[in-house]
Amino acid sequence: MEADVSASMLFLILAEKEHPMAPDSTTARIPKPASSQADLLYEAQQRQARHFRTNVGLSWGILLLILVYLFSGQDFLGIKTISLDYEFIQNNMSFIARGISETFIVSALSITLAIVLALFAALGRLSTIPPVYALSTFYVSLIRGTPLYLQIFFFFLALPQLGIILTGLWAGVFALGLNYGAYMSEIFRAGLASVGKGQREAAIALGMTPRQTMQRIVLPQALRFAIPPIGNDFIAMTKDSALVSATGFVHEIMWRATRVGRAQFHNLEALIMAAVFYWLMTLFLSYIQSIIETRLSRGDR
Q1: Domain enclosing residue 230, as ranges
Q2: Is the pLDDT of residue 300 over 70?
Q3: For the whole model, what pTM was predicted?
């Protein structure tokens, strides 16, 4: 009997030496399950996307360095680069930069007006009432058929003959709002038309009125569809707002750049500074738009 017990203890000691157990069985390592084919494919796609973004960033950096070198005034292999007056740039950069706020004000007011006009124009184009449809199409045809530059001066110079006097700021806001509203009406019309007929019929079956159907079912989905293109139009509007400087009373970026450039005969440096400020605003707004589009696209995944 004692021999059997000793043999059993010896067997357990040898087994423990060959396969030692963790001090606490609850903390024993659980083998990680093997990754599925879908997980491996997703990780590969993520690596490829990171690699692509890295290469794009490096390419942007190289192109930016080349652009900076072109305006450095240095000689390379007998090729003379463009020389700038950096003292002038340093002395007048803050003056031109103060026009950024005016540019944003003009653009923000104009895009707000454009959204309202575009929504009503889109509803009018979907209307079955002939006068409403005619008014909407007439507005779109008239505004899209005339230049934006003409429209700005019409509000600023022509309306005073009728007793309507607008400041340069509001003349630009009305012109930009009307112009972009006509073009953006197609965005809203497509957004409204994208809502399926079945959803409208379901809303009617639930007892909703046409107004309730439009407010609760159609418009929320149409606006979600229209927000990314609206962002593109707002970015374009920040650059088209430079046309408002032609009135001479809106001191935005372009007005300040042309004024100081002509006064000191440094138009090249002044316009380059204006271009850099417009470019930085575009990059910032594009980044904000990408964040909004990412959040809106979550519902489609």
Answers
A1: 101-295
A2: no
A3: 0.77
